[in-house]
Amino acid sequence: MNELRKLRFEDLGEAVWEARSLLESGYTRQGQWSLGQICQHLVLVQDPSIDGYPSWMSLFAPLRPLMRRWLLPKLLADNSPPGIRTSSTFMPAQNAEDALEVTRFEQSVKRLKARSEPFFAQPAFGKLSNTRILQIHSAHAAHHLRFLEP
Do the strands 28-29 and 148-149 form a parallel or antiparallel pair, or are they unpaired? Predict the structure, then answer.
């Protein structure tokens, strides 16, 4: 695998722009997921910030202080580590269609950015400000989209 691109988004709108750009230009995968799979995964992770997380995820609450200290700085870094396992709840379908999932990602981002009420507590990190949750989602998008080379 080639060295991954360095991506950093100050705003989730930049991530949508990057996804649309990759859709238009085409891309080469440096990882396992297509653009459609990445966008589907991002939506699956983002939407519970508004809609709520599955109740079983509250089992991780005792680990939140450790996760905020250990994992959150890594996630927010420009070069977060690849290979962090995710729950099957957040795994994309193998046949995720690029154009459809980019559109769904854009819709999800619009919902997040329009929200004025507090987001639901994040399973790994707990209750955070809306600004911090949006930063986490922006960093998460950059982490995954860096695996696609225009």
Answer: antiparallel
Phi, psi of 8 (to 5 degrees): -150, 130
23 or 87: which leads in pLDDT:
23
What are the Cα distances from residue 43, in Å, to 12, 51, 57, 105, 112? 12, 12, 17, 6, 10
Provide the sign of the torsion angle of the four alpha carbons 34, 36, 71, 60, taken in this order.
Answer: negative
Question: What is the pTM assigned to this prediction?
Answer: 0.91
Instruction: Give the DSSP H/E element, type plus range, for residue 49.
Output: helix 48-51
Paired with 29 in beta bridges are 148
Cα separation, 59 vs 46, whole angstroms: 19
- Tokens in use for 106? 């854009």
Provide the residue count of the chain.
Answer: 150
3-state secondary structure of 148: strand
Coil, strand or helix at 149 = strand
pLDDT in tens, 40-81: 999 999 999 999 998 888 888 898 988 888 888 888 876 566
